[in-house]
Design goal:
By secondary structure, the chain is an alpha+beta fold. The chain has one domain (about 10-50). Helices cover about 45% and strands about 20% of the residues. The chain has a two-stranded antiparallel ribbon. The structure holds zinc ion. The site of zinc ion has 8 residues, from helix 1.
Length: about 55
């Protein structure tokens, strides 16, 4: 999957407003600022670690 924000490959799939979008790690970090829900944040971090291993 390609990053939603750039041409890089997506490392994480973010469910935003019911729409799944792929984001690279750089843009994932950017999006963290928007994710005030700590439960969502924790889930995304777990996903990132799973996909890295
Ligand atoms: Zn990107």
């Amino acid at each position: 999957m390609q990053c939603h924000y750039c041409d890089g490959s997506a490392d994480v799939t973010v469910d935003k407003d019911g729409v799944k979008v792929g984001v690279c790690e750089d843009h994932f970090q950017d999006r963290l600022d928007e994710l005030s829900d700590s439960e969502t944040l924790q889930r995304l971090r777990e996903q990132l670690e799973i996909e890295r291993s």
